[in-house]
Amino acid sequence: ALLNVAAAGKEPQKIAFQRIASLSDLETKLQQASAANQWVMLDFYADWCVSCKEMEAYTFSDPRVKAKLAQFLVLQADVTQNTDVDQALLTKFKLIGPPAILFFGPDRQERSEYRVIGYRDAENFIAHLPQAD
To answer: Taking the CB of residue 57, how many other CB atoms lie within 10 A of it?
Structure first.
């Protein structure tokens, strides 16, 4: 059945990112995840970021990646407009810009050893994920 969907030219199910717009949004989401004892993945995205588009097209569309990320609260910060609020988010994590993917444990602390900067294919990305069980 999956093949038929692809053949019909339908878009594969995208990962349902929850958009965050600010540090306070992020704090709220981290608290929710913490209450549920859940890990958080934060994806920094921008329309002009080629690697972000590639991650979306190839990595995040991979069924294995989607299965792994099902356990995570997946957030996305769209910094396309590069506003002061966007800049504050990037600065907080010492990022120059997207693509960047950050992981936070249920204690709301970033696990910087899992940070992903730049494009990763599905295999690489899965190998790099924290074991969130």
So the answer is: 10
Q: Which among 103, 99, 132, 127 has a CA at the least distance from the CA of 115?
A: 103
Task: Please list the pLDDT of the chain residue by residue as tens digits (133 residues).
Answer: 444 444 444 555 678 899 999 999 999 999 999 999 999 999 999 999 999 999 999 999 999 999 999 999 999 999 999 999 999 999 999 999 999 999 999 999 999 999 999 999 999 999 999 975 5
Tokens of 45: 């995205």
Q: What's the DSSP call for residue 110? A: B
| The two structure tokens encoding residue 123 | 């295999």
Give the Cβ contact number of residue 121 at 10 Å: 13
pTM over cut 0.85 = yes
